[in-house]
Amino acid sequence: MEAEAYRGYCLESVAAAYDVVLITGEEPSWEVPYLRDCMVVPDPGDPVQLSAAGQALAERYELAGVFTWTEWYLVPVARLARQLGLPTSAPEVMQACRNKAVSRSLFARHGVPSAASVSVRTVAEAEAAAERIGYPVVLKPAEHAASIGVIRADTPEQLASAYAFAQEAAGLAQESTSVLVEEYLDGPEVSVECVTYRGETTVVAVTRKTVSEPPYFEELAHSVDAADPLLGVVAPAARAAIRALGITDGVSHVEMRLVDGRPRLVEVNGRIAGDMIGHLVRLATGVDLPRAAADIACGRAPDLAPTRSSAAAIQLLYPDVSGTLHPVYFDGICPRWLERVHFQRQAGDQLLLPVDGGTMFTARIGYLITTAPTADLARTRAAQAASHLHIDITPHTSDESGVGGRAA
After folding, report:
1. Smallest Cα–Cα separation from 280: which of 201, 325, 339, 346?
2. How far is CA 34 from CA 38, 56, 157, 288, 298, in A?
3. What are phi and psi of 96, to 5 degrees?
4. Strand (E) positions, 113-188?
5. What is the pLDDT of residues 8-30, one digit of tens each?
6. How far is CA 367 from CA 200, 212, 279, 361, in A?
7. How far is 338 from 334, CA to CA, in rounded Å?
């Protein structure tokens, strides 16, 4: 189950310190051992449904706080917290995080280094914006997550198809359906994991990322090192971005690229990072980001004192080609530094990469996590562990010979 595989550690951490009552869109299953109560609503992202559920729970219990780690629910959950008189960053602040066009304007107003960006509604507007900014450009939905609909166009000839790709994803957004045409930031990508309490931001860790080759920006791997020398380089820009958006309370995942060694902001997510990054942070530093988020939501100062100085890495597993998945397994003895291996797809599943009309997440086979004294060694161990994975694919081609590819 994907939710358990990627967010189970969050719920486990919070439930160890608090009684949890959950508002969810489906009957709980793996969550049950961690819950005191729950309410199932058709759409937790609908403000009316969420408000009604929250008010009903407030009548049963003395609620101390409310928060979410789901991108799509950030704004309605902030509104619910405000309605219940509980600590939260303002709903309009969460809306600014969700809307990348608003974020860019706030970064510009407050002098936060970012990317040139133009909001467009038609392909003609996109072409004009790209000419002004200069190729290559990046096109993306104004509101989305997980690199959905993000694509690079290197030439005017690629612009129309890139706009169509981004616009299709933007059409599925709940709040803004516009597309952004942005300056391409040429440099390594990192994220900065931050905790803000009553307006004071602590930079907890920096996550180094491996992303796919153009034109897509899919994330392939992450690593966290408690002693990363980049911390001092990126911390001021991360704090400045959080101040510019007006975030006062909560955990933030601040994405940026290093252009000529200097940070340039990509976006700020007002929540715990996905892809198990929060778990990597705990393995590397001992800081518990889900617990910190819960504490802040309840008006309590979080404990952000590091208790470890180590490193951890996650390698996300994908097929080389689109096709049908055969049985997958780890072939060998699991060393102690292999913290976990998770497969989220089964034999017979059809995996479709972006080049063939799918997405990287729907094509993802699973992940593995490794630990080590340094990030370099954790990444080396991840590659070593991946070499012992048996993953075969029958490609989606006219040749049905069954010759498979090995996951990257």
Report:
1. 339
2. 11, 20, 53, 17, 18
3. -65, -35
4. 117-120, 137-141, 151-153, 179-183
5. 999 999 999 999 999 999 999 99
6. 34, 16, 13, 11
7. 6
Q: Which tens digits make up the pLDDT trace of 89-106?
A: 999 999 999 999 999 999
pTM: predicted TM-score of the whole model, two decimal places? 0.93
**pLDDT above 70: percentage of residues in the chain:** 95
Q: Which residue matches tokens 């107003």?
A: 109
| Chain centre distance of CA 302 | 22
Q: Radius of gyration (Cα) for the chain, nearest Å?
A: 21
Q: How far apart, in whole angstroms, are the C-alpha atoms of residue 67 and residue 296? A: 9
Q: Sort 241 into a burial class: Cβ within 10 Å, 0-12 / 13-18 / 19+.
A: buried
Domains and CATH numbers, the chain: 2-95 (3.40.50), 116-183 (3.30.1490.20), 312-408 (3.30.470.20)
136 prior amide bond cis, ω within 30 = yes
pLDDT of residue 35: 98
Q: Where are the alpha helices (DSSP H) in 210-348?
A: 231-245, 277-285, 289-297
Q: How many CB atoms lie within 10 A of CB 229?
A: 8
* Residues listed for the chain: 408
How far is the C-alpha of 249 from the C-alpha of 79, rounded, in Å? Answer: 14
